[in-house]
Amino acid sequence: MGSTKAKPNAKNTMSEDLNKNEEENKLEGEVKEPTQDELGEMLRGMIRGTIDKIGVESEVNKEVLKKLKELLANTPSFSQETFNEVLEIEKSMDFLTRTTEANIEAEGQETSIDHIKNYNPDSAEAKVTKIVKAPEKIQKRFDDNEKIHPKMKEAMAVVCAGVFNNCEYPYTLIGSNCYIPHTEYSAKIPDDLDVIFGIKDYKNVIKNLKKLQGMGLVKGLKEEDVLKTDGTKGDKKIHCWVKGGPNDEWVEMEAFAQNMVTQTNEGKVCESYIPLGINEEEIEVIEVSVMSKDKRGKVIKNEKGEIVYEKVKVNIGSEKMARELYLKNIIKEFNLYNKNGWEHKAMLNAKALQRIFNLINMDSEGTEQSINNLMDEIARIEPKTETIRKVRDSLVFLWEQFKSLPINKQDESAGQQKGLVDYINEINKKEINSNQEDPEKKTKEEKVLATESAVDIITKETNFDLDEISTRSKKLKLKYEGVLGNESASKEDIEGAIDDINKERRLLIQTGIKYKNYISIADSKNRDDFCVYAAMPMMRYHFILPYSVELVANKIRLIKKLEKLRDM
Amino acid sequence: MKEQIDNGIQKDQTKIIEPPFSYEKFLEDAGSMTKEEFFKHFMPENPNSEEIAVVEWMAEDIPFKKSE
User: What is the pLDDT of residues A311-364, one digit of tens each?
Assistant: First the structure.
């Protein structure tokens, strides 16, 4: 057996172990035959080593793995037949590796990535777009899997290498993959990909995505029109899922093709929040390190059976771009309330709380000035419209209301900074822990994580309560309006409707108690509380107050109807 | 475990809820009742101190008809 030669690239095979064993024995001057038990254990070690080298990248490998596991389970002692069988499997692996290497040679540049290789730097679109290497700290945040999940990096590499790095005009990742890397502390990670690119690249982007779909790296590819607020067709949108790893891990992607300067010069409109290729924008290039794959999507291994990694360059929006995006999103949240006569009473939608928090949590922001900066930035947004003015006024109104709230004196005297953020986390049993060793950094991170958590909780909670009130009020309205409009409504019908209003009154009072309590806890000295507090006035002014008045007005009408019936 | 977020660029997973109450109707209804009437019909029977406080809190910003 010791004469059996293992293949050069099969690491730690049993034959190598046996040769090594013989050599060691010779060196030590001893010649000792291994026992059957030792040989059996070596064979099992050989099988385990082979299993470790395989992975589960393909259906073929899954079958091989299954076979090896069976062999491992059924090899209590050494068996020549099993040994030969495992050697055969190793040989087939060697064949697969060599085939892959041959493919790489034959395919030449097919598997190497040249960053935006068809990019036209002389285009009018490129001239307004500054593409720079990402600062070291941003690159580090990508390298650190804490901020960007490996499956997200895989998906980014797949679409950027296979699609967007072939664009002729600027493209960039926006959204959470742009925001999260520009924050020092956040407990969140991006879960989808959002890309913007030039409309002139649309056909090529689709062609390349279809190619990736053929390789099994993209699925569910759909082309859609983005609907504008007036209901007409806007920019082109692509929706699909991108493979982010070997175990069927898929990442959702939305890519928006937008008009750039060539089109706007022709009188077309850019619907996107980010005027990429129109105004001066900055893109940062980061490198993601991912597993190399051949044309069929199989992970490439070197002759030692080790996975080969490659670096793929990816464009992400700068911090400035992330700020611009969230500022415009805030405006969108306000804009939604220009309905039902509430136009001049614009308040924040629950989702806007997260936008505000995102903006004041970015790298360049200090906590103290961040909210004032936010209002100033909103005022500077171009083009200056009536909506933007209203949004700024509404934010100022909210901020002034917040500042007029009392300071939480009880906690202050106890030397604590407790306010609404801490209260929300406490009642929801959220524990905030930072791994930072530096006490100052630890305090800072815990403060950010606590606010982020409270904002998430209150966003969901207010959204739930708004939905509840909205649904219940519509249902109840149908009932009492039916009774009020029915001339032959009986005494029982009317009393039933009054009872329903009284029951609803109880529920609304309970909601009121909750939000009144939250407002009483908000500490105007603790600016983090503002992000959470900002949802409360909307709940009070737009939902609780009008609903209470509506209930009472209709109860009075029903009572009058009942009295009239009694008089008859 | 890190939490995953939606980025809300042009896709919001959070449902947008518009106020189902018209502002004009709110002013009209509020103007049709006095504060006392509101209290009488909105306050539950045998209210506790918390319920009284919250109804008062709600009434603070409602533009009622002036009491005669």
Answer: 899 999 998 898 888 888 777 766 545 445 555 455 556 566 677 777 777 766
Residue A515 sits at φ, ψ, to 5 deg, of: -75, -30
Q: How far apart are CA A321 and CA A172, in angstroms?
A: 10
Place of tokens 């290789």: A117
Query: B62, A548: Cβ pair inside 8 Å?
Result: yes
A–B interface: beta-carbon pairs under 8 A: 152
Name residue A237's beta-bridge partners: A224, A256
Whether residue B13 is contained in a domain is answered as no
Neighbour order of strands in the sheet with A309-317: A129-133, A281-291, A309-317, A171-174, A192-198, A250-258, A233-243, A218-227
> How far apart, in Å, are the Cα atoms of B43 and each of A166, A552, B20, B50?
67, 10, 23, 11
Q: Which of B15, B21, B35, B37 to mutate to test the interface with A (most CBs of A within 10 A)?
A: B21
DSSP A201: G
Task: State the residue range of the domain holding B52.
Answer: 23-59
The C-alpha atoms of residue A360 and residue A371 are separated, in whole angstroms, by 7
The pTM for the full model equals: 0.63
The complex's ipTM? Answer: 0.86
- With CB atoms and an 8 Å threshold, state whether A188 touches B2: yes
- How many domains in chain B? 1
Judged by a CB distance cut-off of 8 A, whether residue B46 touches chain A is no
Nearest CA in chain B to A149: B2
Helix, strand, coil percent values for chain B (each to nearest 5): 40, 5, 50
| Chain A contact for B37 (CB, 8 A cutoff) | yes
Strands (E), A203-262: 218-227, 233-243, 250-258
Q: Do A549 and B26 touch (CB under 8 A)?
A: yes
B12 to chain A, any CB pair closer than 8 A? The answer is yes
**Partner B, chain A 306-325, Cβ-Cβ below 8 Å:** 325
